[in-house]
Design goal:
The chain is an alpha/beta fold. It is built from 17 helices and 15 strands. It folds into 2 domains: about 150 residues, Aspartate Aminotransferase, domain 1, CATH 3.90.1150; about 280 residues, Aspartate Aminotransferase, domain 2 (3-Layer(aba) Sandwich). Strand 1 and strand 2 form a beta hairpin. Helix 5 runs parallel beside helix 14, helix 10 packs parallel to helix 11 and helix 16 packs across helix 17. The radius of gyration is 22 Å and the shape is globular. The chain binds pyridoxal-5'-phosphate.
Length: about 450
């Protein structure tokens, strides 16, 4: 181990069991292609492609080169009242691959910032449109929308909200989540049961009066909570109800954007077009932090009123449209196109589904869920909820040289969009060995 214990002491890891990690640290020193290398010189297969981020693999030469060139040419430029060529180029490129009607893009640095930006756009849009009474925001149970105050308010993961419950945004309500072991266990892709749960939104429009609701935000496929694909017809119904009541529909596509479902966006895969899309992660293949909020043209146009010298939306980040991040973004989009990445992901989907569902009937498994290249195996918990999941994650790391993720007792898989079939097969062989041995 080359790391000094003192160095490790200074670190406070996000969303991690810090003491457990420090007792047995898992430290990555380099990555190339589909593998990480650890501080103790082991080579690990990355079955989570970063953290849903790096669908093209690590260290992609086209992205590395673009970043190197850009940082040498323009390392930073002021982002307020000015811009830079790469940000302009990336915005244009993004709107080209966005669903029909989307024509502008607001840059952020993360998924959490994209979510809070989208919520603010929705509230401001109604206020400018003389509907200042539309202040309510609707999220969904088990939804994950990052960690900023807007995101945890509309988010529905109870432990993430608990510590901050007195300080969450007011006027927020939640739809029911769509997971039901009774009705949906082992569904392949979109479950047949659950469309009726979209009627929760109709009920909330009766309870609060639809004219007080600004926006509904959902992940088209809930990711971090353990992969919950939308029931057949569910998203379509949400869209209809939003249309009836003048509510904006926001798709949080921080995970589902850029090929994870074999298409540029979940919106295009499901053919349900929201009003606002939030992105991050795959936008730059995870190489430089960046997010983007995509909006339909009528939303942008509503802001473009008043004296032309007036700032239309008082919101933004020092690093919005950072030139080096934007260069990574342009190279990433180029690569998705030149390598046919989204089609590669689509081709892998049946094998991925088959491998995941081969765990049906395993004594420690209660459900398997998948869509696109998002997959989950839900385990029966042992005496401490989450302990079995973490144990499997660590055994994969130490015994199988394999990185997977656990969310409590659900194992999650986010393979590379350009995975080799033999690597996918080997991944699930490793998982099966570990699962058979584990407590
Ligand atoms: C759907 C969704 N929204 C928002 C976020 C937050 O993104 P970040 O961690 O970049 O702030 C995530 C992160 O996983 C996510 O999955």
């Amino acid at each position: 181990m080359t790391t000094h214990s003192q160095d490790l002491d200074s670190l406070w890891l996000p969303f991690s069991a810090n003491r457990d990690f420090k007792a047995n640290p898992r430290i990555i020193t380099s990555a190339q292609g589909h593998h990480y290398t650890t501080a103790d010189g082991r080579r690990l297969y990355d079955a989570f492609s970063g953290l849903w981020t790096s669908g093209l693999g690590h260290g992609h030469p086209a992205i590395v080169e673009a970043v190197q060139k850009q940082v040498a040419k323009l390392d930073f430029a002021m982002s307020f009242q000015m811009s830079n060529e790469r940000a302009i180029e990336l915005a244009a490129r993004l709107t080209q691959i966005s669903p029909p009607g989307f024509s502008q893009c607001f840059f952020t640095n993360s998924g959490s910032e994209s979510v809070d930006t989208a919520l603010k756009i929705a509230l401001a849009y109604h206020r400018i449109g003389n509907e200042a009474q539309r202040t309510r925001l609707i999220g969904r149970e088990r939804g994950y929308h990052g960690v900023n105050f807007g995101g945890i308010s509309v988010g529905g993961i109870a432990p993430n909200r608990k510590m901050f419950s007195a300080n969450l945004l007011p006027g927020v309500d939640h739809l029911s989540h769509t997971h039901s072991l009774e009705h949906n266990a082992y569904s392949k892709g979109q479950p047949a049961w659950g469309k009726h749960l979209a009627e929760d939104l109709e009920k909330l429009t009766q309870l609060h009066d639809g004219s007080t609701i600004a926006a509904v935000i959902v992940e088209p496929v809930a990711g971090s909570t353990g992969i919950l694909p939308p029931p057949v017809g569910y998203l379509e119904r949400l869209r209809e109800i939003c249309d009836t009541h003048g509510i904006l529909l926001i798709f949080d596509e921080v995970i589902t954007g850029f090929g994870r479902l074999g298409d540029a966006f979940a919106a295009t895969r499901f053919n349900v077009i929201p009003d606002i899309i939030t992105t991050a992660k795959g936008l730059t293949n995870g190489v430089i932090p960046m997010g983007a909020v995509l909006v339909r043209n009528e939303i942008y146009q509503r802001f473009m009123q008043g004296p032309p010298q007036a700032i239309e939306f008082l919101h933004g980040y020092t690093y919005s449209g950072h030139p080096v991040a934007a260069a990574a973004g342009v190279a990433t989009l180029d690569t998705y196109q030149s390598e046919g990445t989204f089609a590669q992901a689509r081709e892998l989907e049946p094998l991925f589904e088959q491998l995941l569902h081969s765990f049906k009937g395993h004594p420690k498994v209660v459900d398997v869920r998948n869509l696109g290249l998002m997959g989950a195996i839900e385990l029966t918990p042992n005496s401490t909820p989450g302990a079995r999941g973490l144990d499997i994650h660590k055994r994969c790391f130490w015994d199988e040289n394999l990185v997977i993720r656990n969310g409590m007792d659900t194992l999650q898989f986010s393979p590379f969009l350009n995975s080799r079939e033999t690597d996918l097969e080997a991944t699930f062989e490793s998982v099966r060995r570990v699962l058979d041995k584990a407590e």
